[in-house]
C-alpha cells in the first residue's frame, strides 16, 4: 500500500466529484438506468467549459453510492461531504455552480 496524499495535494486537487454510474442486473433502481453516464458527461463538460477539468476539482465515475433512484444519478462532492440524489444532466450546471461558483482556472 502506498500513501499518495502528498502527490494529490501537489497536483492541487482540493475537491472530488464522484458520479455513480453503477448498473445492476435486477429489478431495482440503479444510476446507470437513471442517466448516470449523461450526468458524468455533463460534469466533465461543465469543468471543461471553465478550463477547470485539470484543476483542483477532480471527477470520477464510481459504483453505488447508496442513493439509488430511477429519477437520476447519485453525486457526492468531497471533502465537502455533500451528497445528492436524483441528479439529471440538466441539474449539473446549477449544482456545480452552487458548489464551486463561477470561477475559472485563472481565478484558482
TrEMBL record:
It comes from Halopenitus malekzadehii. CDD domains: TRX_Fd_family. It comes from the Archaea. Gene3D superfamilies: Glutaredoxin. InterPro entries: Thioredoxin-like_sf. This is (2Fe-2S) ferredoxin.
Amino acid at each position: 500500500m502506498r500513501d499518495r496524499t502528498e502527490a494529490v495535494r501537489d497536483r492541487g486537487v482540493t475537491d472530488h466529484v464522484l458520479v455513480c454510474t453503477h448498473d445492476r442486473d435486477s429489478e431495482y433502481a440503479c444510476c446507470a438506468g437513471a442517466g448516470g453516464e449523461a450526468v458524468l458527461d455533463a460534469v466533465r463538460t461543465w469543468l471543461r467549459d471553465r478550463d477547470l477539468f485539470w484543476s483542483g476539482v477532480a471527477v470520477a465515475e464510481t459504483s453505488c453510492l447508496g442513493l439509488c433512484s430511477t429519477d437520476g444519478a447519485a453525486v457526492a462532492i468531497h471533502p465537502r461531504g455533500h451528497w445528492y440524489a436524483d441528479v439529471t444532466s440538466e441539474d449539473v450546471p446549477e449544482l456545480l455552480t452552487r458548489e464551486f461558483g463561477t470561477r475559472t482556472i485563472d481565478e484558482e
